[in-house]
C-alpha cells in the first residue's frame, strides 16, 4: 500500500484515482476543481493537510506523485511552481502519465532527478472507458527497479503494462506513435466515408461491408458508427487530437522525421475545431470532409 498524491482529476484522472483507492492505496487529490476533489474525498481519499488543492501539502510524505494533467506546462506548474517536487521525500517517485512531447518529458525528468527524486515516464492509452474499468495500457520508461516498485500502482489502473525503456522520453515517444496511428486512422475512415457519401452510397451498408473486410480496423469499428450519428456521445474530443497530433508533429520536428500523413490529419482536426466543433466527439472530424466536398451530414439533434 502506497501513499499517492494524484494531480489531475479530470475525465480520466478521477476514475484512475478512485481505482487506486479501491486497490487499497492512500490517495490525496490535487486539482483546482473543488467538485472533483469532493468526488474523490467521497470515495475515501485523504485530505491534504488544510487544503486538498495544495500540491505541496498533498505531496508531503507521499511515496508517489502521479501527474495526470492536461499538458507539460501543467506538470511543471504542479511540480515546480506549486512546490510538489520539493515537498516529496528524497527518493520518492514522480510518475508522469499525461500525454506530453518527448522533449518536454526529458526536460522535466532532468529537473526531478537533479532534485534527488526518481522519475517515471508512463503515459497511458485507453480513454475514459479504460480509466474507469482499470484496463489502461501503460507505456513506462524508467529504471527496471523503479518499474518493478511501481507495479502495485500500475496494476490498480492498467491491464496492459509495458516497460518500453529506461530513459525518460521513451514512454512519451511510444504514446506519440500510438496517437499518430489513432489520429490518422480516424481521419482516413472519415475520408473513405466522405468518398462514398459523395456518390450516394448508404454508409450503414458500407460500414457493415468494410467492418468484415481486410480494410477493417479497430478505429473503423469504434468511430465508424459514431460518424453516422448527428451528435454522438463524446468519448474523446476533437480538441484532444488537435493537441496530440500537434505533439506528434513536434516530436517529428525534434527527430527530423517527416510525417506528412500526420500533418494532413492534424489539419483536418484543426479545421473541425476552428469551426467550433472542438468539444465534439473526435469522430466528427468527418464534418471537415462534409465542408470540403459539399456533402450534407445528418441533421444535428
Strand-helix topology:
Blueprint: E1 3-7, H1 13-22, E2 26-30, H2 34-42, H3 55-59, E3 64-67, H4 72-81, H5 84-87, E4 93-96, H6 102-114, E5 118-121, E6 124-125, H7 127-133, E7 136-141, H8 144-149, H9 151-157, E8 158-165, H10 170-198, H11 203-211, H12 218-227, H13 238-255, H14 260-277, H15 286-293
Parallel strand pairs: 1-2, 1-3, 3-4, 4-5, 7-8
Antiparallel strand pairs: 6-7
Helix pairs in contact: 1-7, 10-12, 10-13, 10-14, 10-15, 11-12, 13-14, 14-15
Would you write up a description of this structure?
Helix content is 54%, strand content 13%. It is an alpha/beta fold and 301 residues long. A five-stranded parallel β-sheet has the order 2-1-3-4-5, with helices on both faces. Helix 1 (13-22) packs parallel to helix 7. It is elongated and about 65 Å long. The mean pLDDT is 94.
Question: How would you concisely characterize the structure shown here?
Answer:
With 301 residues, this protein is an alpha/beta fold. The protein has 15 helices and eight strands.
Distinctive features:
301 residues; alpha/beta; three-stranded mixed beta sheet
Quantity of strands, as a count: 8
- What multimeric state do the chains show? single chain
Round the mean pLDDT to the nearest integer and report it.
94
Choose one word for the global shape: elongated
Low-confidence stretches: none
How far from one another are the termini?
Answer: 48 Å
- Structural classification: alpha/beta
Largest sheet: 5 strands, parallel
**Strand order, largest beta sheet:** 2-1-3-4-5
Helical percent range? 40-55%
Strand content: 5-15%
> Counting H and I runs of at least 4 residues, what is the number of helices?
15
- The H/E string reads EHEHHEHHEHEEHEHHEHHHHHH
Rg over alpha carbons: 20 Å
Amino acid at each position: 500500500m502506497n501513499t499517492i498524491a494524484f494531480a489531475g482529476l479530470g475525465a480520466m484522472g478521477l476514475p484512475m484515482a478512485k481505482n487506486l483507492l479501491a486497490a487499497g492505496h492512500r490517495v490525496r487529490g490535487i486539482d483546482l476543481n473543488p467538485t472533483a476533489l469532493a468526488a474523490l474525498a467521497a470515495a475515501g481519499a485523504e485530505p491534504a493537510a488544510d487544503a486538498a488543492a495544495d500540491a505541496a501539502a498533498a505531496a508531503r510524505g507521499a511515496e508517489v506523485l502521479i501527474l495526470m494533467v492536461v499538458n507539460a506546462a501543467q506538470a511543471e506548474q504542479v511540480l515546480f511552481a506549486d512546490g510538489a517536487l520539493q515537498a516529496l521525500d528524497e527518493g520518492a517517485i514522480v510518475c508522469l502519465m499525461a500525454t506530453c512531447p518527448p522533449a518536454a518529458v526529458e526536460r522535466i525528468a532532468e529537473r526531478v532527478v537533479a532534485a534527488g527524486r526518481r522519475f517515471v515516464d508512463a503515459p497511458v492509452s485507453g480513454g475514459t472507458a479504460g480509466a474507469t474499468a482499470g484496463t489502461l495500457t501503460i507505456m513506462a520508461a524508467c529504471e527496471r527497479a523503479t518499474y518493478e516498485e511501481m507495479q502495485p500502482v500500475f496494476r490498480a489502473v492498467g491491464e496492459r503494462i509495458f516497460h518500453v525503456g529506461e530513459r525518460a522520453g521513451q514512454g512519451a515517444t511510444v504514446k506519440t506513435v500510438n496517437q499518430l496511428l489513432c489520429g490518422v486512422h480516424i481521419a482516413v475512415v472519415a475520408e473513405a466515408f466522405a468518398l462514398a457519401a459523395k456518390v450516394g452510397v448508404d454508409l450503414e451498408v458500407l460500414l457493415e461491408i468494410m467492418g468484415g473486410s481486410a480494410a477493417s480496423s479497430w478505429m473503423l469499428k469504434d468511430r465508424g458508427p459514431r460518424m453516422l450519428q448527428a451528435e454522438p456521445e463524446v468519448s474523446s474530443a476533437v480538441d484532444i487530437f488537435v493537441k496530440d497530433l500537434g505533439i506528434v508533429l513536434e516530436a517529428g520536428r525534434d527527430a527530423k522525421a517527416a510525417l506528412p500523413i500526420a500533418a494532413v490529419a492534424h489539419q483536418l482536426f484543426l479545421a473541425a475545431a476552428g469551426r467550433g466543433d472542438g468539444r465534439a466527439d473526435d469522430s466528427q472530424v468527418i464534418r471537415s470532409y462534409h465542408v470540403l466536398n459539399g456533402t450534407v451530414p445528418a441533421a444535428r439533434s
